[in-house]
Structure formats: C-alpha cells, structure tokens
Amino acid sequence: MTPRQEAAARTRATLLESGLRLAQVVGLSALSISRIVEEAGVSKGAFFHHFPDRSSYLLALHREFHDRIRDEALKSLEGETPGAARLLKATRNYLDTCLREYGVRSLLLEARADPATAAEVRLRNSQTAELCAPDFSVLGWDHPYAAAQLWVGMAAEAALLEFDAGEKLAPLRAALARFLDAPAELIGG
C-alpha cells in the first residue's frame, strides 16, 4: 500500500470510529455528516471521498460493527469443535457485545429502515447461519441450515429483548440454551 493509500485507509477508519463513538451518545437523527466530520477532525470532502452519502456511511458503520462481532466470536471459537457449546459461546459473545455497545446497537436498529441496511442485515443473517449450520449438523438436526437460520433469528430477537431491558436477561438466555438441551451457564443464563 502506498503512503497515500495508507492515509486514506486511516481517514476512513477514523470516520467509522468517530461514528461508533457518537452512536454511544446520539441517535440516528443527530448523527449528521457535519457532526461526524467534526468528531473525526476531517473535512466534509474527506467524508464524501469515502462515502457518497449518509446512507452509505450508515451501511459501512453497520458492517464495521458486525464485522467486529464476527471477528471476536471467530477468534474466541478457535479450536472449538462444532456443537452446542461452540454455538452458545458465539451467541453469548454476540449478546454481550450488543449490550456493551448499547448506543451503537440503538443507532443501527434505527438505521434498519434504510433499504441498503435492511439488505445487509439479511445477507449477514444468511452468512451467520452458514457458520452455525455445522453445529446443528453435529447435533443431529435433519436440516442444519434451516435450524441455523432459526437460531440466528432467535439470537437477534434475544438481543432486541435485552436491548429493550437494558440488561442481560438470564431466563431468556437459559431458554436459548434449553433449545439445544445445553446448560444455561454456557450462554451466561
């Protein structure tokens, strides 16, 4: 990468980091381009060099947030064999991150009304189901991908319920573990 490309990548990363920080304190309507560039310490021209519009920026923010969750989960699962324990560990990571990053999660939920972000959510859910399907296969499910799709939906719903409550809901997590005939402590329930 040339020095110019490295600088551009740093600017893009700074813009996304600024958005993630702002998301902790402001809602979607207050996340203006002006506020983002002020927080990032860059010009509007720099913003528009990386993102053609606010919608594209929100999509990139969504991807950044969920890429971090995925990467953190995959790292924590290194060496784990497919099955209930691995699936619950990944789900616990997802739920805990959504609670820890409450403001970001709030902003991204608001952004789901945007068609590009909604399409990204569907794609991300499908990709996550692909990652979870081997767990259901090992558990003996007849249709592992379909089971994984349902699991991803349940985990997303659990994240919404915990989001609304503003805290971890141990009975909810225990219910998720019960679907796999697994101990609740594997998911923090």
TrEMBL record:
Domain (HTH tetR-type): residue spans on this chain: 9-69
DNA-binding region: 32-51
MF GO annotations: DNA binding
Matches recorded under Pfam families: TetR_N
Coiled coil: none
Gene3D superfamilies, alphabetized: Tetracycline Repressor, domain 2
UniProt keyword annotations, A-Z: DNA-binding, Transcription, Transcription regulation
Protein name: TetR/AcrR family transcriptional regulator
Taxonomic lineage from the root: Bacteria, Bacillati, Actinomycetota, Actinomycetes, Mycobacteriales
